[in-house]
Amino acid sequence: xxxxxxxxxxxxxxxxxxxxxxxxxxxxxxxxxxxxxxxxxxxxxxxxxxxxxxxxxxxxxxxxxxxxxxxxxxxxxxxxxxxxxxxxxxxxxxxxxxxxxxxxxxxxxxxxxxxxxxxxxxxxxxxxxxxxxxxxxxxxxxx
Length: 143
Hints:
With 143 residues, the chain is of the alpha+beta class. It has four helices and five strands. Helix 3 crosses helix 4 (122-140).
């Protein structure tokens, strides 16, 4: 049914529970490239997580706030529009978008608290962001 938790999300939860060190938030945001092996994996990360968000939200990034609100997200102060979604306890994910127009294509970024590697591997962080992106796009249809 639609209420079932996807297997990938169950695995992410298990990995979170296994990896979590209880490290407090640093309140210092980092980009994916700053994670261990993040630079090597960034092209794939961008293709699977950031680019899918640019289609539905790139020209109207304000719609991201409504979609994120459906997931418990809150507005953040970055880019043209940004939201922070608490994926797990002490694992905030901040999605930042810059509006596209006739001259420039929309752009996006996903930021993490610097402590995120104490909770998930770089691969799991990518999978988590992809899952959140799919949920945001799905919620867009509800607003």
